Amino acid sequence: MKATKMESKVWPKIKGGIAVFLKYLSLILASAIIILPILVIFLGSFKDKIEFNTSGPFDVPKAFDFTNYVTAFVKGKMLLGLGNTVILIGCTAIGTILIGTMTAYVLDRFQFRANKLIRTLFLWVTLIPAVTTQVATFKIVHALGLYNTRFAGIILSVGTDVVSLYIFLQFLESIPKSLDESAIIDGAGYFRVYFKIILPLLMPAITTVLIIKCIGVYNDFYMPFLYMPKQSLQVISTALFKFKGPYGTQWEIVCAGVMIAVIPTLAAFIALQKQIYNGLVQGAVKQ
Q: Which of 108, 124, 168, 280 has the lowest CB atom count within 10 Å?
């Protein structure tokens, strides 16, 4: 009986210890998966071509020389790419929020025959692989005269994607319809209700969508590379592609450019981390 009582007391402690060990082990492994590639790029950005090709990925460079950073920034025209990226992100953010919130507002607040059909069509769109529509999309963009213009990137980035739409719809369901009805009784129109009531109350969801959308646009390489190949229209993701040629790639300069590209996102995360965490939690969960 005593042995049984001791086992009943010791075994929960052992299970708790194993759980804590596995928890921290998983955190260490996840951190290593994220940090190690960045560490390799950081160390490689300070090596010259010969040292980069002959040394190991985790070898510390002989000298911390910023020549690669200067080359990547000047010859890669990183400032131009950053400016074009900011313009693209700004226009995309405004367009996505207006179109997405208005669409969600109509689908949630107004009952009409095609309401369920439109919702179903949005879900069906997700079943179509994006790559299968690229030929048709390219022909349309070219026919409209938007190829190799900034408007091509803006129009293709702006839109009501299904994820954004359903985040707005989910959050709208938690906003009482009595607020709309009270405002309409007091003489407010639908647009006034949207701008004065719906839009302010959707700010947590808007924050979530902005985070997802802005990160996606900043990291996107395929769309700017295909539709905006002109050098004056390069964005931060395509700025370094010029260092890749048929006779080899200057990986040490590419590494330096990658580190430069990381700086804006790192600075934005440090400055807005509270808003980012709050937006992801509040905007993605129905209250």
A: 124
CB contact at 8 A, 257 and 186: no
CA 58 to chain centre: 29
Distance between CA 90 and CA 84 in Å, rounded? 10
Residue 165: inside a domain, yes or no?
Answer: yes
Answer whether 0.85 is exceeded by the pTM.
no
At 168, phi and psi to the nearest 5? -65, -45
Q: Which residue has the tokens 């965490």?
A: 277
Count structural domains, the chain.
2
> How many C-beta neighbours within 10 Å does residue 203 have?
13
Burial (CB count <10 Å: 0-12, 13-18, 19+), residue 238: buried
CA quadruple 189, 193, 196, 202: dihedral, nearest 10 = -160
| 21 in the same domain as 119 | no
Q: Which residue has the tokens 């590379």?
A: 225
Is 53 part of any domain?
A: no
- The first and second tokens of residue 117, run together, are 């059909």
Query: Predicted confidence band at 232 (pLDDT cuts at 50, 70, 90)?
Result: confident
Q: Model confidence over 204-226: pLDDT tens digits? A: 888 888 888 888 888 888 888 88
249: domain range? 67-283
Is 38 part of a structural domain of the chain? yes
- The amino acid occupying position 186 is D
Specify the long-range contacts of residues 240-248, CB closer than 8 Å, at least 24 apart.
Answer: 240/72, 240/76, 242/75, 242/76, 243/72, 243/75, 243/76
139 shares a domain with 220:
yes
